[in-house]
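Reading is simple: each integer encodes one residue's backbone shape. The lines below illustrate:
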Amino acid sequence: MKNQQRLTTNFYTRDVLDVAPELLGKYLVRKSDDNNIRKYLITEVEAYRGEEDLASHASKGRTPRTEMMYHQGGYIYVYLIYGIYWMLNVVTGDENNPQAILIRGIEGFNGPGKITKNLFIDKTFYGEHLATSERLWIEETAHHPEINFKTATRIGIDYAGKTWKNKPWRFILD
């Protein structure tokens, strides 16, 4: 399936702090097993930047869980929290520079666990590439309106310490 609006690898192979706000207002597109295609406007994301970011999984180094974060941008990084919720992340940047963006909100669903539950996203998506996946991708919006957003601190990362928990790396469509 070829889609002219789908974002290409070049979009994702930039710094996470450039890519994250640019995801706002774009469509997260999910093609279900019955070939039904649904588009959801991305409304909130969080950036995680490198091994030095103590809120990032990469701060513990390269592990089987974080391996995908060390790939070139455009890959899907999903992981399980609390044994029940899958978290959907977009890998960004260059190879061996672990960066990822957590999709926190889409039109109709606020909260990363609600997104993956309602879009039936699970561990089988780990390692798919958004530029080529037949099940999940991100598209430009048709009219490219000017996007206004606000920033805030990331959620649920008190363990990372004051410096990292107070980074304004959560981006919210205004």
Notes: DSSP finds four helices and nine strands in the chain.
